[in-house]
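Q: Here's a chain of 256 amino acids. Please give me its 3D structure as tokens.
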Amino acid sequence: MNIVNRVVVILAILVVMIVIPLALIFPEQAYYGLQWATETVKVNLEWLDGLEPAMRIGVRILLAAAGLAVFVVGLLCLALEVIRIRRSTVRLRDGSGELVMSGVAGHLTYYVDLLPDVLRVRPAVQRAGNGVRATIDVETAPGVHVPSKSSEIRETARRVLEEELGLQVKGDIKVVIKPASPPKGGGSRRVTPAARPVQAAPAIATTPASPPVEAVETPQEEAPLPAQREELGKESETIEVKAPPDPKGLDATQNP
């Protein structure tokens, strides 16, 4: 409405600031202009009188409809300008202020839509005295447990209205749930084959475990001391090795 008011005011200002100064500065031209407009209206009236009665009635009906439309539009603009439409508000529970009803519905939509398995939310909040009454239409995913989901939505809506927004809830919050239809082919149940009994595996004969073999320690000879090594070396030096006799010498002794 503010835009319409501005447009009308601007047009009115332009007409006044242009037409009136021109008519005052050039009165002859203004007279000729008014005379031309009068002649135009006179010619149109003569044309209208020359029409047949049926055509004359049709033209007058069209002119009357155009004039009535202009009158209704002007009356509507005047009413909107004079009568201020008050937005629907609700008083807070502690009396500290008022809240716009459209904001209440937006808060309910936001918080309820955050719940799992909720696809679409359409709240309807109405003012009831100093409080509100709420009806929430919710579309949920298929396979949802409806009673528990309805309780969860009702508790969430009451918490938002009373704690978050500070409003007083009149009566119970009505929750209307519409579960979404399952996808095609989702209703058929898959038949699982019966579990076969598991046969016990045959026992395997086991041989008795042999006793562990004890490791036998073999005595090791002690290394000789340095003194014993010296005695053994002397004994090896004193041993004489006798060479076998030379056969040539024997022959020489036997045959002089």
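Q: Can you summarize the key feature?
A: Residues 187-209, 219-223, 236-243, 247-256 have pLDDT under 50 and may be disordered.
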